[in-house]
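Protein chain data
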Amino acid sequence: MISTKDKKTDFHLSLPEVHSSIEVPEGAGFWKKLRAFAGPGLLVAVGYIDPGNWATDIEGGSRFGYTLLTVILISNLFAMLLQHLALKLGIATGRDLAQACRDYYSKPVSMILWVLAEIAIAATDLAEVIGSAIALNLLFGLPLPVGVFFTVFDVLIVLYFQQRGFRIIESIVAGLMGLILLCFMYEMIVSQPSVSAMAGGLIPKMEIVTNPGMLYIAIGILGATVMPHNLYLHSSIVQTRAFRRDDVGKKSAIKFATIDSTASLALAFFINGSILVLAAAAFHNNGHFEVADITDAYHLLDPILGVSLASICFALALLASGQSSTLTGTLAGQIVMEGFLRIRLKPWMRRLITRAIAIVPALIVSMIYGERGTAELLVFSQVILSLQLSFAVVPLVFFTSSKTIMGSFANSSVLKILSWTVSLIIMGLNAYLLFVTLI
């Protein structure tokens, strides 16, 4: 897999000058520095609550109650570890994951990794297209094909805000994530879930492994939670901060970026957990065990909970989820293409290409098969993401474990063991998910 040419010796010599845009105040206190580093974590976190997560969380809650809440927790802990490695790679080397792969691996291997990364981004965009179209249908009654077509116009919105600076994008994403958070806080209040049952759901149970149906959904939740494109994205956008490039400055940057990332992913855990808890409280506890579709969940919420705003908040959060994920998907696409190929496409062209790849299958399926077909396509997009994950995780763990590449910031022995263990678990579970899906 590694090139026959030894690239380890010149890895750092090829580093470009990092053009940072947000100043980190020297000699400032803890909170001022944290505020300077805050932002990239939120952009990463929205990828963990995109519409692709909703279907698996809803099905898990409606079929098995609160039991699979522990799987969401474990998935988020995996995500926190992997995102820490991604930001550490970016800060310590000045290279994002795509650039590191291009520098270290042979050209054929780099091209394969690039293609796989592009497939993952297209699958992510497909989930965003379908989720946004479903939300528009639920909120405004737009037919699904029309909703899919309308998602083309978010290209113009993304481009407009990209030109106004990185902080603007971070602020928009923060606002959308805040809206999603408020919507699900309301849902938690009106659904009145059992606190003791939620606490019990956080404890791992052997039944999750021994019950084939539960295991299948558990792996689906894992595959929908940890996103490969987020590893490329985080390793790049963390470099938008202007910090000291010596070891002391890098160590401080890694600390504050990790706090930002971990806190943001904790919010993502609350939102993902809330979706499952809502499904458990509203559907499972009332005998609706087969709700596995976003549209069905929307139509059942108001009658079951007896409030008129539950379904509206649900659909509004879904729309905000799709739009926030669109912003980060665009950035990830640009980072991957420029990192692997050194090709700088104009943002509007890159966005249109990615969105066109997602719109075509979504439009065809929505026109021919309607709601049920788009729901199945949404699940299929998550299977694709699961298959691509290992090809981003393994290089990331390898690079961050190498002293030649990372210097004094290489993973410790304990972190190496933990990182490779998580990688093997992810690869094993995703291989099982593929096998079960095909068979």
